[in-house]
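help with this.
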Amino acid sequence: MFFGSKKLTEPVMKPKYIHKKFIDKCKEIGVSRNQYPFNTTHLGYKALCRYLVHLRDTHFGQSSSRYGHDAEQKAKNSGKGQLNYPQTITPYQHVEFDGHRIDGKYVIIIKTLEGDEAVLALERLWFLSFIDRATNTIIGRPHICLNKEYNASDVMIAAKKAVIPVKKKNLTIDGLSYQPTGGYPSERFPVIKWAVWDVVYFDNAKAHLAEMVRERFRNLIGCTTCLGAVDRPMRRPHIERFHQTLTSSSIQRMVNTTGSHPNDPRRDEPEKKAIQYKMTYEHLEELLDVVVSNYNGTPHGALFYNSPLDALEQRLNKGMLPRLLDESKRAEVEFTRIEQPRTIRGSHKSGKRPYIEYMGVEYRNELLAQSAHLINTKIIVHVNVDDLRTIRVYLPDGSELGELVAAGKWSLTPHTLQMRKAINLLKAKRLIHFTQWDDPIFVYHEYLLSQTKIKMGNNEVKTIKNGKIGHSRRELIQLGGFNQLRLQQYLECDLVGHNSRTLSKILKPIENFNERVDTWFPLNLRWCELCIKNGYHSWLHQFTLIQHCPFHRKWLDDTCPSCYNKIPFLLSDDMLGDPFTCRCGFQLATFSETQWKDWALTCNILDPTVINWLEREGEGVMVSTQLLFNPRSTSLHMFSQEPLITYKIQEKSATSINRWSDEFLQEISIMNNNCFILNFLEYAHTHMPMFFGNIHCLKPTISTVRL
């Protein structure tokens, strides 16, 4: 029980519970009350604790399992047998490599197809580096991987950065600087530019076991790969210790750190902080570059308080120079190049010219297209996994067939082998679709953007799908339920301010009426059939005083043509299940992702009344008193007419409305169709103050006049 039983029991049982089991067993076998342990003060508890201490000290490795897996592994696999390995003193003879997950949240700012910026939170980042066992020097600039898991390509990119000579970055963070004693080996000592190692120590991660990694390390760098035992990090102590130092001295000190565990007190909404302060991947690159550079110039106790660069300089002065990479192999593409056997395909019968298929894409050039005699020939393909737009082909006799280009729009945008695999997988699952005229990389990026979940707004909006959230938090007119700062951060534009300016321009001529905004903009969607088919909707469509589309002069719709239900103008899925689609299934428009890519609709206002309304520039309808009319029964066109009724009433000298003739009332009715304002001010003040007082009546009817 102390070491943990294979049976279903507590993984780490405390002594008091072991003692309880002991007492229960004694009772079970019939130990009497006057026998041990019942005849002692503590029922044998003290003696049991002494025995457990003896077991712990006797079985050191097994008892360490009570303190976690790491302690157990160290106890079982270190400190016994042959004491460590022979010490390495020659630089670059033995190096260690590993990847470390960065304990922090960061964002990346990308460009959309429309040229806008989008801020995306990165799920996980990896820090990949090489360290020299002899001097504890970090070799070359480390590589930061943006994927959830790093792969063979990332390992080779890290190797490339470790071999290629390093140049200082131009830092963009104010106040950030390199220590004068720090730097990288190839930067400080020109004699070891392009230096390579003899043995590299890996763990058994899948990326390290890849054929590409072993082949490139063997044939390009000329080193031996040593795969350590499974789950034995103590066999690579230098790189493990460096990652601990890196984490504690930099990453976990930042406001966006995730801490070392979920309950770490340093973890305080890291994703929110990363978005709020725009802590980007580029900032992380600069920061870690400075930290690693300074690390190489910091004295270490293990080096008798010499810095790694000082120790390296002393070894080089003693003639311990590492190998240099052959000049013929120094092209950057060599590090990420793999060789694959392929067969040239083609058919005389179908008229298809020779081509080579690689990862679901056809490749060809002019020479291959004219070489029908090579169909079914086995060849060797050299692929740069960082850019699959082109490949190089070699015939069995070693002659080069040249550079082949990917068919269709696969040749337009640089993409990696990993990206090609992801696109093919999504296409096979029918999650994305593209034709030979579509750029698959753009389609893939749009898919990733559509899958990105960004939390916006206050707590009410974050739970907007909750049916208990009221319409006031869903409305899209003034965006009252949204956090303006968050919207501006995520959308890179002041959406609330833009809406406010647009509405103010539309309402400028009637701003003196002092009505609420939703008086003029109903909470039901109004749209033009022709505009919506082109993916367009305007605030003018929502304006109550406009009944016709200003761009096409067609009546505006406000109900679904199929089910005749109104669609709320809210952030809600009550009536819109999918984009442009009513709940009943009727599609207001059909749009694909690829159509949106080239969306560039230009709309011109054809209605002169609307043009005049928007160009009035503050010349509003002068009404300084109370409004008495129904906006939803009024037309914008009424504002453009002269107030003829006002003149007629002022000319009439009658002392009572009841004495007006039927002919005069009929004349008023006709003119009422062409006017908006009826000014009763002069007449009402003189003859009917009890009914009208200081009121302006808009769009009067005969019944109103007879009142």
Remarks:
- The first strand starts at residue 94 and ends at 101.
